[in-house]
Write a structure and sequence with these properties.
This protein is α/β, with parallel strands linked by helices. The protein has three helices and eight strands, in the order E-H-E-H-E-E-E-H-E-E-E. A four-stranded mixed β-sheet has the order 1-4-3-2, with helices on one face. Strands 5-8-7-6 form a four-stranded mixed β-sheet, with helices on one face. Strand 3 and strand 4 form a beta hairpin. The relative contact order is 0.19.
Length: 140
C-alpha cells in the first residue's frame, strides 16, 4: 500500500491567477486542470462565471504534487479548509529565492534567516492567503 500527502489549496475564484504565480515562484508545472464547465452533468442553473472557475487542478512541484480548486461560486473557504505548506530545499539561496518570490504582495510572518533547526528558514503568507514555510535542510 502507498500513502502520500498532497497539499490541496481551496481559493475563492482565483486559481487561474494563482497557477502562473506558483509556476514562477516555485517552479510548478500544470499536470491537469478542469473547470466546473468541463464537468459532465453540470446543472443548467450554473452561471457562466461558475462554469469558468477551476473545479480541480493538479500541479507538479519538484518531486511532489499540489492540488487547487476554486470554492464553488467563489464562496469563502471556512475554518478547517486552510492549509500550510512546507517547501524544503537543500540550498539556502534557492530557499531564499522561493521565499522572496512568495512574499511579493503577501505578508511576512517570519523573516527568512538562519535558525537553530535550519540554515535558512522563513514563513510567509502569499497574496492568495496561503501560508508557506520555507525550510532548508542540508544533506550531511
Amino acid at each position: 500500500m502507498t500513502v502520500k500527502l498532497t497539499p490541496y489549496i481551496t481559493l475563492e475564484g482565483r486559481v487561474k491567477e494563482a497557477i502562473p504565480f506558483y509556476e514562477q515562484a516555485i517552479g510548478a508545472q500544470i499536470l491537469s486542470m478542469m473547470t466546473y464547465g468541463d464537468m459532465p452533468d453540470l446543472p443548467g442553473t450554473f452561471t457562466d462565471d461558475l462554469r469558468s472557475l477551476v473545479a480541480h487542478a493538479k500541479l507538479k512541484v519538484g518531486g511532489t504534487e499540489l492540488m487547487l480548486s476554486d470554492a464553488p461560486g467563489g464562496s469563502p473557504a471556512g475554518n478547517g479548509k486552510r492549509v500550510t505548506i512546507c517547501i524544503t530545499t537543500n540550498d539556502v539561496e534557492e530557499s531564499k529565492r522561493i521565499y522572496e518570490a512568495l512574499r511579493q504582495e503577501g505578508q511576512v510572518n517570519m523573516p527568512f534567516k538562519e535558525e537553530p533547526f535550519s540554515p535558512g528558514f522563513g514563513d510567509v503568507t502569499d497574496k492568495f492567503g496561503v501560508t508557506f514555510q520555507i525550510y532548508t535542510e542540508l544533506e550531511d
